[in-house]
Specification:
The chain is α/β, with parallel strands linked by helices and 148 residues long. The chain has helices spanning 19-22, 27-37, 51-64, 77-80, 82-90, 129-143, and strands at 2-7, 42-47, 69-73, 95-99, 121-124. Strands 2-1-3-4-5 form a five-stranded parallel beta sheet, sandwiched between helices. Helix 3 packs parallel to helix 5. The two termini are 18 Å apart. Bound molecules: 1,3,4-trihydroxy-5-OXO-cyclohexanecarboxylic acid.
């Protein structure tokens, strides 16, 4: 089983970026811990500041057929990108939306995500643990018929 962990704009700055909100750990550290938590799973990690590159990566994952599911932290693109939403809607791969922070407890503009309705679910507010919970949810979804 291979899971693609996709991170959008500004998540490359984790560790340096507003650590009171996003924590002190870099994305590479978070990715390493995630892989250690699921030794039976293969991970592919990809981050981009660019909307089109994230979309291209989703299509590549779908077309190559090596990846079974996606954990996506779209960053601010969650709140702005209909293009990313349409890309997720156009593929069959299940995508779980992940946020480090609780986007519902912050500024009002973060309360709406264009991608949520085309994702299988949303995990928001658990810091680095959000990724682990996202992968866990994805595995449950992939292994279970319930909720499909
Ligand atoms: C974020 C939440 C978004 O609102 C914000 O723009 C981010 C990070 C999170 O992980 O909490 O870049 O996706």
């Amino acid at each position: 089983m291979t899971i693609l962990v996709l991170n959008g704009p500004n998540l490359s700055r984790l560790g340096k970026r507003e650590p009171h909100l996003y924590g002190a750990r870099a994305l590479a550290d978070i990715n390493r811990s995630l892989a250690e938590s699921f030794p039976e799973i293969q991970f592919e990690f990809f981050q981009s500041e660019i909307e089109g590159e994230l979309i291209r990566k989703l299509f590549e994952a779908e077309d190559e057929g090596k990846v079974q599911g996606v954990a996506l932290n779209p960053g601010a693109l969650a709140h702005t990108s209909i293009a990313l939403r349409d890309a997720i809607a156009s593929i069959r791969l299940p995508v779980v939306e992940v946020h480090l922070t609780n986007v519902f407890a912050r500024e009002t503009f973060r309360r709406h995500s264009f991608v949520s309705e085309v994702c299988v679910g949303v995990i928001s507010g658990f810091g680095e643990m959000s990724y682990r919970l996202g992968v866990q949810a994805l595995l449950w979804r992939l292994r279970s018929e319930v909720g499909k």
